[in-house]
Amino acid sequence: MLFNAILLEKKEVTGFTCSLKNINRQQLLSQQGDTLIQVAYSSINYKDALAITNKSPVVRQWPMVPGIDGVGTVLECASGRYQKGDIVVLNGWGCGETHWGCLSQYAYLKSEWLIPLPDKLTAHQAMTIGTAGYTAGLCVERIFDFGVKPQDGMVLVTGASGGVGSIAVALLAKLGYQVTASTSKIDQAYYLRKLGAVNIIDSQSLKQSGKPLQKEHWSAVVDAVGSHTLANACAQTQYGGIVACCGLVQGMDLPATVAPFILRGVTLAGVDSVMASYDKRVTAWNLLAKHLDEEILSYVGRTITLNECVEVANKMIAGQIKGRFVVDVNKQI
């Protein structure tokens, strides 16, 4: 059995390469796993873009098939956890880093990494959400569980035009929160307003060094940017508020002081989507399935093929895209 997959390789002579190649079943099954799935759709996330463009040392084993997301049909499951024909969703677990991922027509995975596709979602919709949307769901769940209510004030979403930001804006708006969207793409304000944002601000206002404590604006924050943006978001959060942090587009540094945390009681909550427990994953996915309707998902998502992944990855790193990119791994240009 031969099938198509994006393969990342790094060799002494040729250096780094990214190409669409034919892979055989024996190569695939050399990966540690117990469940063979036929992939229907994957997606391009920021981590995938870093791997595909080799802009960051995301990949830790070579060669590698990228794709931290996938949805597909179970063909074999040695653990017995799933039956042949079940439709399952993968997010994270080191796929695309230390284990072959789902930018491929087939994937060999561990059954404990998978969750059933929620009843209210199609396979395509699940990858419109993908890890970016699932991460947004985890962030919103943290805010919701923390006790922040829509009447408590405005919620800030940084990197709002990106995958995490787009879904966070839409989900928070559906839950009744008033959302301010921070973006570098001010010319795309219409896109964010259609998702439910009531206010749009230029991300440049958050990207520079700011005072340790600033005027209180936000009852809660979803931050996918990091660095000065995260520091300023914390400095602007209301007394007793929460900042859910999940990304590092601007950088991994946090040039902040303890002032917001000890003088205003602000909570900085780290959100990890890669190793989250099964229960947290199911809860987040059920929240997304319940509140994100077909119209919103159709507006956010665009479908591409495996052949187009490199182009999209480069544009994603350059900050030239908005929304989500679903990869139909079985469609050829």
Write a short abstract of this structure.
The chain has 333 residues and is an alpha/beta fold. It is built from 11 helices and 15 strands.
- Total discrete domains: 2
What number is the mean pLDDT?
95
Binned, the helix content reads 25-40%
Please, what is the oligomeric state? single chain
At the first level of CATH, what is the class of the largest domain?
Alpha Beta
Q: In DSSP terms, counting alpha (H) and pi (I) runs of 4 or more, how many helices? A: 11
Low-pLDDT windows of residues: none
Percentage of residues in DSSP E strands? 25-35%
CATH architecture call of the largest domain: Alpha-Beta Complex
Radius of gyration: 20 Å
Order of helices and strands: EEHEHEEEEHEHEHEHEHEHEHHEHE
Report the CATH topology name of the largest domain.
Answer: Quinone Oxidoreductase, Chain A, domain 1
Briefly note the structural class of the backbone. alpha/beta
In one word, what is the shape?
globular
Tell me how many strands there are. 15
What is the secondary structure topology, with strand pairs?
Blueprint: E1 2-11, E2 15-24, H1 25-29, E3 35-44, H2 46-53, E4 69-77, E5 87-91, E6 106-109, E7 114-116, H3 123-146, E8 155-157, H4 163-174, E9 179-183, H5 189-195, E10 199-202, H6 204-207, E11 218-223, H7 227-235, E12 237-245, H8 259-263, E13 267-270, H9 278-291, H10 294-300, E14 301-305, H11 309-317, E15 324-328
Parallel strand pairs: 8-9, 8-11, 9-10, 11-12, 12-13, 14-15
Antiparallel strand pairs: 1-2, 3-4, 3-6, 3-15, 4-5, 5-7
Helix pairs in contact: 2-11, 3-4, 3-9
